[in-house]
Amino acid sequence: MDRRNFTKFALSGLAFSFLSDSIGRAALSSTGPEPISPAAVPPAPTVPATPRTVAQKPYSALLERARAALDRHANAFALRDRLAIVDFDAPSKNPRMHIVDLIGGQTSSYLVSHGRGSDPEHSGWLHSFSNEFNSLASSSGAFKTGEMYFGQHGRSMRLLGLDPQNNNAEPRAIVIHGADYVSEDHVAAWGKCGRSEGCFAVAPHLVPQVLGMLGPGRMLYADKIGNG
User: Fold this and answer.
1) Alpha carbon distance 132, 197 (integer Å)
2) Does domain 59-223 fall into CATH 3.10.20.340?
3) What InterPro entries does its record include (predicted)?
4) Which DSSP letter does residue 135 get?
5) Under 8 Å CB-to-CB from 54, ≥6 apart: which residues?
6) Whole-structure pTM value
7) pLDDT tens string 65-90
């Protein structure tokens, strides 16, 4: 190779090297802004244990009463992450069993029956409670969910009454079970759910969901605290 061609080749190589370096720097600068250091990232907002949407619900007063009962019966409950409340101020045509996540605040609501002894005229509204045998009535107060079993109504869950006004729940066989008379179709046809014999009956297709969310060892709290 003569001196002229060597010089031309060397200059071409130098130019290519300079061009490659320029392209490399441009590529680095076009990848976007530099990563933000963790110290510069603002902290995520704290989510309240009971969001405002729950606090504004019609059953919020009943939920507070249930929380107080959970504290009162603290020795009975190792599981305090969620509970069920049954708002018997509402008519049976409304979803009035609310399973509340006490940590995240989410709520799932379901239709639920009351006992025929609590509504003799079948008005769709609960009028009274009873803890007496053969009353066929609903009882109020705090219940502890027990074992699941298969009985005459299929998959069901036993309940233990923890208060003086419901301490006969277990011998009275007051349980959570499924019933065809508790469904949206029944409400559409009759304007209300049917009545149980004091049990908390829910729609049959929702029994696995309800029992799965509650599980043994959690609280179900039922009451009527309004004037209706």
Assistant:
1) 12
2) no
3) YkuD_2
4) -
5) 60, 63, 100, 105, 107
6) 0.76
7) 999 999 999 999 999 999 999 999 99
Q: Single out the residue of 90, 105, 2 nearest to residue 49, CA to CA.
A: 105
As to burial, measured by CB atoms within 10 angstroms (0-12 exposed, 13-18 middle, 19+ buried), residue 150 is: exposed
Domain boundaries, the chain: 59-223
pLDDT at 58 over 90: no
Confirm if 158 and 146 have CB atoms less than 8 A apart: yes
Sheet holding 97-101, edge to edge: 107-110, 97-101, 82-87, 219-223, 141-151, 154-161, 175-178, 200-202
Where are any strands of DSSP class E within the chain?
A: 82-87, 97-101, 107-110, 141-151, 154-161, 175-178, 200-202, 219-223
- The residue type found at 217 is G
Q: Which helix (H) or strand (E) holds 180?
A: none
